[in-house]
Write a structure and sequence with these properties.
Layout lengths: L1 E3 L2 E2 L8 E2 L2 E3 L6 E10 L2 H7 L16 E8 L11 E4 L2 E3 L5 H4 L11 E2 L19 E5 L4 E2 L6 H4 L5 H11 L7 E5 L3 H12 L3 E6 L5 H7 L3 E4 L3 H6 L4 E6 L7 H5 L2 E9 L10 H5 L4 E4 L5 H14 L5 E5 L3 H9 L6 E5 L1 H6 L2
Parallel strand pairs: 12-13, 12-15, 13-14, 15-16, 16-17, 18-19
Antiparallel strand pairs: 1-4, 2-3, 5-6, 5-10, 5-19, 6-7, 7-11, 8-9
Helix pairs in contact: 4-5, 4-10
Bound molecules: NADP nicotinamide-adenine-dinucleotide phosphate and zinc ion (2 copies).
The site of one zinc ion has 5 residues, from loops.
Length: 351
Amino acid sequence: MTQIPAYAAHGPKTPLAPFPIERREPGPHDIAIDIAFCGICHSDLHQVRDEWGRSIFPMVPGHEIVGTVQATGGSVQRFRVGDGVGVGCFVDSCRHCESCRDGEEQFCAEGMTLTYNGYERDGKTPTYGGYSTRIVVNENYVLRLPDKLPRERAAPLLCAGITTYSPLRRHGAGPGRRVGVLGLGGLGHMAVKLAKAMGAHVTVLSHSAGKREGARMLGADHFLHTADADALKKHSGQFDLLLDTVSAAHDYNAALDLLRRDGTLVLVGVPPPSPLAAGSLIMKRRHLTGSLIGGIRETQEMLDFCAAHGVAADVEVIPIQKVNQAYDRMERGDVHYRFVIDLESLRQAFR
Ligand code: NAP
Ligand code: ZN
Ligand code: ZN
């Protein structure tokens, strides 16, 4: 075991603070990673504040991890010391259920091992995430980071990127398709960039009128302010695909009304429960579905797609000492469009 510095929340109402943790020595199939950057996902905030009711404290959040291979176990073939790598929302799974065999490990029948706020396969060792300087992960759950991608801008791809890439691909975002993105935050801004790179016509639907120009700069073709009832009415029945990334309770029926016949609304944001009327689906035979991050194979495909198309997150890099202010700003929607922690700030503080 090696002790390393990290930042943890000790309860839903306490700020994150320095907390030393232990990482295992790499086993034969493990990779030890020096963490360079870690993105701050709204799921970190939901879980630190215990908004989903299954938080384990102390909690070291962080599942948008990029770094460099620092050591490899004796049987590791695919990675070498010095390689640029990434780790996303899970670090293990049962490896034998149907979903694991299909490469959809996020739906593992025995439960994926979350990168943090979970337990290792032994069911008792807590997992700690990327707000730390080092992580040890089985090689099958490590992503290869294309050299072309700037590291701090690649970190958010490990969650925000794959969470939007996967449903956009599955539901055919591409030329001739009208795609709407609800909520222009970390996930939303990646959805805009990815859907544009796939060739779709993209509209941002935001409850923040002030995000119009930002949406245009990200490449969106159109912007709709969701408080503008007339504008929404005009666009009723127009979209093929809507990706809902909103983190707060809102009206799903209003979103469904924007879909054309057989159109699809994909929920990826995880707000508190919101009402749904059957008529919203029955009329125009609309589809409602959800999507959960993506498997390892698809996450690698997404990283390679981003490298090939020059897609990366727009980030504000912060030292870890500012993480609590970043949470407050994220809660107020004051982020453009992802906070990313530079872990050098943590290394230096403990040198
Ligand atoms: P974020 O950066 O905070 O963005 C959320 C966006 O939601 C905001 O930018 C805002 O966009 C909109 N919003 C916030 N409060 C709102 C309100 N009161 N009314 C209407 N819209 C509001 O969060 P994120 O990191 O993108 O995460 C978004 C959600 O996805 C979270 O619930 C997160 O837990 C979830 N998530 C799910 C998965 C998955 O696999 N399904 C993976 C990662 C994250 P506008 O100002 O443009 O309206
Ligand atoms: Zn996330
Ligand atoms: Zn499994």
